[in-house]
Each structure stands twice: as structure tokens, then as C-alpha cells.
What we know:
The complex is a heterodimer of chains A (891) and B (192). Chain A has 891 residues and is mainly α. Chain A has a six-stranded antiparallel β-sheet, covered by helices on one side. In chain A, strand 2 and strand 3 form a beta hairpin. Chain B is globular, with a radius of gyration of 18 Å. Classes of the chains: A mainly alpha (891), B mainly alpha (192). At the A-B interface, helix 1, helix 3, helix 5, helix 6 and helix 10 of A face helix 1, helix 2, helix 4, helix 5 and helix 8 of B.
Amino acid sequence: xxxxxxxxxxxxxxxxxxxxxxxxxxxxxxxxxxxxxxxxxxxxxxxxxxxxxxxxxxxxxxxxxxxxxxxxxxxxxxxxxxxxxxxxxxxxxxxxxxxxxxxxxxxxxxxxxxxxxxxxxxxxxxxxxxxxxxxxxxxxxxxxxxxxxxxxxxxxxxxxxxxxxxxxxxxxxxxxxxxxxxxxxxxxxxxxxxxxxxxxxxxxxxxxxxxxxxxxxxxxxxxxxxxxxxxxxxxxxxxxxxxxxxxxxxxxxxxxxxxxxxxxxxxxxxxxxxxxxxxxxxxxxxxxxxxxxxxxxxxxxxxxxxxxxxxxxxxxxxxxxxxxxxxxxxxxxxxxxxxxxxxxxxxxxxxxxxxxxxxxxxxxxxxxxxxxxxxxxxxxxxxxxxxxxxxxxxxxxxxxxxxxxxxxxxxxxxxxxxxxxxxxxxxxxxxxxxxxxxxxxxxxxxxxxxxxxxxxxxxxxxxxxxxxxxxxxxxxxxxxxxxxxxxxxxxxxxxxxxxxxxxxxxxxxxxxxxxxxxxxxxxxxxxxxxxxxxxxxxxxxxxxxxxxxxxxxxxxxxxxxxxxxxxxxxxxxxxxxxxxxxxxxxxxxxxxxxxxxxxxxxxxxxxxxxxxxxxxxxxxxxxxxxxxxxxxxxxxxxxxxxxxxxxxxxxxxxxxxxxxxxxxxxxxxxxxxxxxxxxxxxxxxxxxxxxxxxxxxxxxxxxxxxxxxxxxxxxxxxxxxxxxxxxxxxxxxxxxxxxxxxxxxxxxxxxxxxxxxxxxxxxxxxxxxxxxxxxxxxxxxxxxxxxxxxxxxxxxxxxxxxxxxxxxxxxxxxxxxxxxxxxxxxxxxxxxxxxxxxxxxxxxxxxxxxxxxxxxxxxxxxxxxxxxxxxxxxxxxxxxxxxxxxxxxxx
Amino acid sequence: xxxxxxxxxxxxxxxxxxxxxxxxxxxxxxxxxxxxxxxxxxxxxxxxxxxxxxxxxxxxxxxxxxxxxxxxxxxxxxxxxxxxxxxxxxxxxxxxxxxxxxxxxxxxxxxxxxxxxxxxxxxxxxxxxxxxxxxxxxxxxxxxxxxxxxxxxxxxxxxxxxxxxxxxxxxxxxxxxxxxxxxxxxxxxxxx
Lengths: 891, 192
């Protein structure tokens, strides 16, 4: 009955297909039995056509289960199979996968053995990375996120890479534990025990928040409790880096699909801005579940949109009543410490965290932790009405803007605020007044942090500045409390200094100092701190003499008024070291900074302040030419910064760039480039492209590229850096000079000698105006003009410039400093080109001796020196000596 | 470490002439959303929960809602977008099926769990690839018909929408569909 003739498309063309269809449609509505006769008559003997139409009619009846079941089943056949796929026994790198241990929205997690170490790890493999670019990006994002975080409550990242087919993987700490809720149920934990575990979860979340990371998928199955009762927060697979622009569109779109609706905050479901408050909500749900044994909303059998409507609209039943029912039903003793009355506090705690309006929630995980602590200690909650803090919160909330903003300022300011709070609390005056002041400052900072929208991040300095400006206005309105106002002016001024907005910083810091002098007179610890802050600003403004006076005054005052181990003294000592460095007197700066390191180390190993002091000391050793000392100090400070701040932090970036500078000086340009690129990546991501710190990093990278003779790569980096520096610092500033130096070098290599000389001349001019005539950097500028003169074959002028440069060096550098070595070799060449062979020999030999002591023998200066010496000895008629250096030069 | 992963789909994305297409970022994003939606669709089938079952129409509508806020798609009409979304679904599914089949057929990765449901799934994957190939051939014979199948099968467009998209009557859509379905069914069967 069935005609097996093929309707293979290869055998038919469009016209034939039309014919087939025409007959098909005419025949298809006839009774099945009549079709064959009709088709045969209609096609008048075209056997092929008859066969094709009949086959089509046959398939019309037969159909296709695949086509008829639709795309959903097709999708299932593709995606469901992946769930079954497992790779036990598969090895890559040092890992061998043992068994699958979990499956998340993003990928599959395997337990793996590390064969070389005999240890285990959890390996997460991304599923279908090639099919979904943003999924792949998110996976890499998780890797970056974990790399930043270092907290006992967060599973650590060990390693990351990609399989041969490009599938990315990450290796993490394997956590052998039980889900939080299961653990509590199995151990029949008391309310207090549950709260302590919950507090540890909050602490891990707070750590993430302090690194600008929002988890977005907090739920009990992402929290494991280990055998020793420690908690581990897992799965940062859909975490968001605040301020990471690439994720903005993604946050409320695909991100939404991946999180778990039961723990999703209303703003996640309605597409509102996601921030740290989102995690606070999820923590609230977890707490609800821990307290009551069930989820706050019954979402079973609901479609996603119904679920969303319930979460957004429905009001919550108090945990206490749910728990009472559960207790009656299951005989569970839901008695919190403090008895039944304490349930009212637990209701407030939980419902405040879960408030539908992000504004009404706990502002931060820290605030939630504080109230958990208050509860456990039997103290009144901050979230309770009728407390002073509650009123402050109300004051803050008047603004009606969402929390979570100004992440960059957050990092800078929170630490300062914490220290003010402590200082104010320890003050001798009446406790009530002090508490009010503390609350006022906290309120102020919260206000500051609440401006704008929630996506402000480190890269968005413009918006940060807007927030800062708002902060300054707020501070101006605090006339009634001049002490608080002065403190805030100093905070803001210091932040502005760091942001490179020096005029604004100046205004605020002056206002702070004046207010304090009016309040306390000229001799007071806070006045001392104002002086130091102004001194730091003057360094940035390149007003070094002023800076030194201010910092020395401030340090002396702190020493008079504070015990020797006080943080103010340590801080001022570091500041003095930096001033001496800016003056170019490294030999003086080094002992001062050694003292600063000692003071900071006494206050605690591994603090950021210690890292900064070590960094300052390293810088001065570096400038003094002690590269090996500098190298090991940089590494020491980098270890601290990484442990403390995570791998993605400007301090870490600074560390890389400094290590790059050391490698550059040692002649290891490729190494230098590698470090510089790591540093630049961090700076660009953290500060954005138009920031002075990014510009410095660009300059450093360009410097390495220049040494690798990659001028075309270097030039655009330098032009960008110069534009940024000029914009931020004005025309006369050392940082502008530094950019000019590099541009001059590039111009010279490109044989644009007039340009080169103009760049170096401007550079020299800047250094002369900023530092006066005695700074070694001025010497370098002059020596570089000498190099241009040599290229122009103006050897007399070159000689004069090199000699002038060495006079300048002599004022601050030791005679065996690298700069002397280089300049003597250059001077030797200028002399040799004037056929003054004996003088040339002496200079080059001296320079050669200095160079070979300090750098590796492959450095181009040494080669140049050898080549020049061989020419000099040839001309002096000493062929044996000439041959000796020629041979070495050829190597 | 920068995620230099954009552009994986450059080779597979073949916008038709005259298609007002968004930039690569927007397309990448479309593929990503489509991927997540298809995954959701697959899991709704697996769980067999009728209340959670999502039709492809709903998926495409949701994808449109999500993506239309992006200015890069805003210039398009919803219908035009659905057509592109249908194409994206086809490509994501076909690529996924190819990958799965490649995995299945070896390389250095060996799957030990090969239960019956996987065998069924593998057949459907082959059907999917056969449909893809047959659609390419149909596009040569009658582009409008191929576009119609793509929009209906992968994008879940209903008859009215399909008619509007192709600027033909609904009766024509039904006729074209019937012939194309029969022909494709034969092609898929013969490819087994």
C-alpha cells in the first residue's frame, strides 16, 4: 500500500515541491481509499510524482510523534540527558573525579581526589557553557568572587581552569556536612543553638558584603554544618559583584530564574534593584525556617507568577504563632532563652529582616548580627521601637531611598565610622550625650550610603562623588554638633583625597581643622589628626615642604597627647615616612618607616595598616635602589593584603604593580609586564578607566612595554594616562611628569627627537617647580634630554646635560646608585664621540662597575657599556682590552 | 582574568537579510535567556506537573518581556522578536543536541550511566537533528514554509501570529503546515 518512493529534497526542486503539494492538498481531504486513484489520474502517468504525493499522504496520516509532542519534549531530550551524565574516574590536572555530590543551577559538583597531595576537593563543572555566554560569564564571576573571599564560613577556592573542550571548572574546599535545617532538626537544636548557627551564617554573608559581593541565593541547602558545628556558606554561582556593570541587565533577568523562589526577596521577583538588603531578606527566611520548622510561604503547586504574587503581597504569619502550633503538634520545645516573652523579640527580629520594603529591613547583615547578639544577651533589640537607635533609624528612613548604595564609599567610610564609634564611646563625658553622637554619626553614614540607586560600585566614581557631595551638605547642616561635623569633614576630606579631588578635599580638611581648633584649642589629639590628614593631602598636591611641616607638627602633638602605642602615633609615623619619600630623602624615610612598621606590627599581625606601612617602607628601599629588600617587603605586604582583602583589592593591585617595578629595574621585562597587567586589571575594575590610580598602573605597564620595544602598544596607554593625570592633578604635578617621561622615551625610540626633547623638558620643568633643584627625578629628566642630544649628535650639549644630571643626583643619591651608573655610561659615550678617549674610558668603567653590581648582566646598559668600551680601547690602541669587552658584548 | 567568552555564537547566528538585528551582546543575551527558558521547559516536562508546564509561547513571551527593556531590542516589534527567538531556540537546541551526541559518542569522556530514559532521549536528539537538516532543505524549496515551521514548532507562534508574520491568510498557514508537517515527518522517520 505504501509507496516507498523517496521524496528526498535532493531530487526535487521548488517547482516540483509546489506540484506535489497541489495534488496533496486536493487529495488529502478525500477518503483514504479514494486517494490513490485520484492521484494517479491527476498526475497522468508521472510515476515519480505519483510516488511522491502518495508518500506525503502516507506521512500525513502517520504523523510524527516528535513533531506533534512539541518543543518541550525536544528540550527535555537535550537537557535532561545532561542530568544523568557523570564523569567518575575522569582525570584532569592533578584531580580525579570520584563521584557527583550535587547539582546546582549552574553546573554539576563532583568530589575529586587530588592525586599528588592525597587530599580531596569539590570540583564544580559548568554545564553548557558554550550554549549560554552569560552563564559562562557568571561561572567565571563565581570564580572571581570566591577568589576575593577568605572567611572560615565560606568554602575556599583552591584552583580553577578549563577542560580541553573549554568547559570551565573550579576546585573548592570540600565540605562534609549537613544542610543547616536538617542538622538542626536531627540534633534537636535549641532556639539559642539555632541562633548561634544563624549568626555564623550572617557573619559569612557580612564578609561577602564587605567585599561588595551579594550572594543572592542564600538558603539552608547552601549552608552546611560540619561535624565540629561550623557553618559553611556555599554556591556563589549567582552572586553579584556590586558595581560590576556587566551584570546589570542580567541581575533581574536570567539571574531571577536561577534563584530559589522560596527565599527570594520581593524586589528580586518584581525586578527591583538587588543589593545587600536582598541577602538580608533571605537570611530572614532562613531564620524563619529555623525558628518555625517551615517556610514562611507555602508555595507548593504554585506557578512562578503565583509564587511571586504571594511573596510580594501576602502578609506574614508571626514565627511565634507558627512555632507554637508546631510545638503543640510535634512536641517540639520551642522555648527561646528568656521564656515566652522572648518570642515577641524573635518575631521582630525575623520580620524586620524579612520586611517587604528593603528600607524597613536591617540595613546590613551586621545590623542583623547585632540584634541576634542583643537577643542572646537578653538586651533590647535595635529594631525595637522606643529606643534611641530606633529613632535614629526612623530619622534615616525619612529619606525614602533604598539601601545598598555607594559601595566604594562604604568600604572607605565604614572602617572610619567604626573607629569613631569606639572613640566616642570611650570618651569621658556623659554616656548619654556620647551615645546620641554615635547614633548621629551612624545615622549620617547610613544616609550617605543610601543615596542614589543600588548599583553604585567602585568603578562608578562619578556617582560616588555625587553621594559624597550629598554627604558634605548633610555635614554642613550639623551645626549643632560641631565635633561630629568636624569628624565627618575629615572623613570626607580623606575620601576626596583618595579620589583625587584635591580642591574639594582641601576645603573640607581646612574646615575640619578650624572647627577643631575652635572647639578644643590648638593642642588636642583630634587637631593632630587633622594636621596629618592635611599633610597627606599636601603630598598629593606636591606641596612637600608644607606637608612635612604639617605632618611633623601632627606627629609631635600625637606623641605628646597619646601613649606611644596609640594608633594615631603609628599612623602619623607612616605619614611622615611618606612625606620624606615624596621629598626624595629615602635614607631618612627608611628608619621612620621601620618604626611605623614596628608600631603597626605591635598592634596586630596582618592588619591593613601594617600592610600599608610595609608597602611604604618597601617603596623607599626601592627608590633607594635596594631592590631585593624592596622585593621581599612587597611580597610580605602582598601576603597580608591578599589574606585580609582578598585577591581583588586595590592594595593587592598596588602590590603587583610594585613587584612589576622591581622586575623592571632588574631587567626582567616580561615578568614586569605580567605583574603590571595583573595590577592594572584590578585597578581598572575597581576604580574605572579615568582614575589616577588606573593611570599610574597604565604608566607602569607602558614602561614595561617600552622596555620590550613594544612602542605601539605603549603609546596609547601613555596618552590615556597623561590625559587622566593632567585632568586630575593639573599641569604641574609629578604624576604628569612621570607620564611625560614615558611619552618622551617612546618618542625617542620612534626617532621623533623634537617631541622627545619637548616631553623631557616639560618633565624637568615640573620636577624643578615641585621639588626644587635637588630631586633625583629632576636628574633623570635632565639625563634623558642628554640622551636626546646624543641622538641628535650634539655631543657637547649631551655631555653638559649628563654632568648637570649627576650634580642633581649627588644631592640625594649615594655615589653607587644605579642612576649614576647609567648616566656615567651615557656620559662616556658623549665623550667618546668627541674622541676624548681617556675621559670616556674612566666614566664608562665607573658606570660599568656600578651597573654590574646592581643588575643582571643581560641588561642593555651593560651591553652598551661593553660595546662602547671596546671602541674606546680600539681607539686607545689597546686591542687586547677591546677584544675582552667585545667578546663579552657579543654574548 | 577576563571572561573573553563573547562571540561563541558568531558562527551560528545567521540573521536573515533585512533582519534588524541587535548587536552581538544582545544576541548573546538572547541565547542565554533562551537557554535558561528551554532548560526550565525541559524540567517542567520532567516533573510532569501540569500546573508548572510552560508552553513555548509563554516562554517566548517572557523572553520578550525580559529582553524588550533592553534598548537593543526595543526597535523590534514583538512579532519580529518572536521570530528571532524561535530561531534562537532552534539553534540552542540543535547545538545542545550535537554536543550531547558528541559526548555520547566518546572522546575521552565515558558515561557509565546509560539507562533507558537516556536511550529514549538519544532518539529524540537524533530526531531533532534530522528536523534541523530537513528544515534547511525545506528552506531551499520554500523559505516561507520553513520559517513557518520554525516559528510554530520552536517559537510556539499560533496560527494567527504566524499568518501575520508571513503576511498570508490563516487558511494558507494551515495548508502549508499540513504539507510541511507530512514531509518533515517522513524525513525524520527516514533519518532514523
